[in-house]
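Hey, I'm writing a tutorial for new members on how sequence and structure tokens pair up, and I'd like a real worked example in the thread rather than a made-up one. If someone can provide the structure for the chain below, I'll link this post from the tutorial.
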Amino acid sequence: MGRTFRALVVHNQPEALGEMVDLLTEIDLSVSTARSETEALHKISAEDYSIIISANHPPGLSGASLLERSSTFLPNAVRILMVHSAEEAVGLDRRDDQEHPIIRFVGRPSERSRLRTLVRESLKLLTLVDEQKQLVKNLGLEYDKLQRREKLLDVVVSERTK
């Protein structure tokens, strides 16, 4: 990967945060943590994160709401919501507001292998997006070069045909 991706993990339990940090640093992510929705929103508004992972229902925190609100600041971030059951994930996936959907759901207690797989897939996706942006930029530069050469050629042709 060309750049270091950053993740924000939001959970109100320090033990869960520690486990998540250990898991994500194994995957070569730079990890920050937040223990409340307010703290998370403050960090999201101030810093760039590629992946945001949140528990859904710890006390004083609505993970789904947080992830939806995070799209205002980080529209391209991958959002992962830790839920208690498949039924909860289905219910959340059927919300009316799908403008900024939560892309991934993972069960709790932390299904480490599933979460690890989701994060790795997310990193591949983010890497492809970065590569696509670079290709588009390079294509634009090459197009500009061609336009300059075309203008030069027009000048040369016009001078020779006088």
